[in-house]
Automatic annotation (TrEMBL):
PANTHER family to which the protein is assigned, alphabetical: PQ-LOOP REPEAT-CONTAINING PROTEIN 1 (PTHR14856:SF9), PQ-LOOP REPEAT-CONTAINING PROTEIN 1-LIKE PROTEIN (PTHR14856)
Protein name stated in the entry: PQ loop repeat protein
Keyword set, alphabetical order: Membrane, Transmembrane, Transmembrane helix
Protein source organism: Penicillium atrosanguineum
Region spans: Disordered: 242-263
Membrane-related topology note: Multi-pass membrane protein
GO cellular component: cytosol; endosome; membrane; trans-Golgi network
One biological process term in Gene Ontology: phospholipid translocation
Presence of keyword Hydrolase: no
Biased composition (Basic and acidic residues): 249-263
Pfam families given in the database record: PQ-loop
Top-level taxon of the source organism: Eukaryota
Compartments it resides in: Membrane
Length: 263
């Protein structure tokens, strides 16, 4: 067995399982240290929690790679922690630089209004109730004969993986709307690109049987992440260096209001 094959067989699973921690630990610590989740999009934990929960239930019908199941379980813990920290440190209602939900925000900035203010509630309880009901419904379905249907299992997998694959899309739209990548962490982009590279290598080169739904959705997410990298390169080249201003805090505050932070 070659060195590359050994790395894929033993190194890739460890990387995949630990990737939720390496990708989001910095965000959690940053919010905890600053005591503010201003600029952070709550859509990120929503997307990742829904996708990971669906992938866990998908495993009971498909029995795919144990490393991918472990990754989904770790992701649930990490994203639940991130959600709690973000909710506990939300800015006061109406504060500048409040929590962003771009590009899926209300009509105030040209977006659409979410039904019943979905995932934009001021109270903390509805977020956990939604996740609890979501898990409970899937559990009830799993205990019925429906869970034996190949069609149902395929739908679970495709929906879960498709939801995860759209994770970069809000950031892409936000960058286009703002004409910059301000507020988007380079460390997050780097971890996504490195994760995509390792994930694609594992999907197509490892000896384990990986369902094609993982491969197709993984390729789509990989393309989106690399486009994000192109966006970052393009916008940073186009952005001129800002002159030092004597107005200090006023200019920095005005610039901060345009900052769209997705991660």
């Amino acid at each position: 067995m070659s060195l590359i094959q050994l790395a894929l067989e033993y190194g890739a699973p460890v990387f995949l399982i630990s990737s939720p921690l390496t990708s989001y630990a910095d965000q959690i610590l940053s919010i905890h240290r600053t005591r503010s989740s201003a600029g952070f999009s709550l859509d990120i934990p929503l997307i990742m929690l829904v996708a990971s929960i669906l992938k866990v239930f998908y495993w009971f019908g498909e029995y795919y790679s144990g490393a991918l199941l472990a990754q989904a379980l770790v992701m649930i813990v990490v994203q639940a922690t991130l959600l709690k920290v973000a909710l506990d440190n939300r800015p006061a209602s109406g504060a500048k630089n409040g929590i962003e939900h771009t590009p899926f925000s209300s009509g105030s900035d040209g977006g659409f209004v979410r039904p019943y203010d979905f995932w934009q509630w001021r109270s903390t309880k509805p977020y956990w109730l939604f996740l609890g009901y979501f898990v409970a419904i899937l559990t009830v379905i799993h205990l019925t004969p429906i869970s034996d249907s190949e069609t149902y299992i395929s739908i679970l997998g495709c929906v879960g993986l498709a939801v995860e694959a759209i994770l970069p899309i809000p950031q892409i739209f936000a960058n286009h709307r703002s004409g910059s990548c301000k507020g988007f962490r380079v460390s997050v982009l780097a971890s996504w690109l490195l994760g995509d590279t390792m994930k694609m290598s594992y999907f197509f080169c490892s000896g384990e049987a990986i369902p094609w739904s993982f491969k197709v959705c993984g390729m789509f997410q990989c393309v989106c992440d690399f486009y994000l990298g192109f966006q970052y390169w393009m916008f940073t080249r186009m952005t001129p260096r800002a002159p030092v201003s004597s107005q200090g805090n006023e200019d920095r505050w005005g610039q901060a209001e345009k900052d769209i932070r997705m991660n």
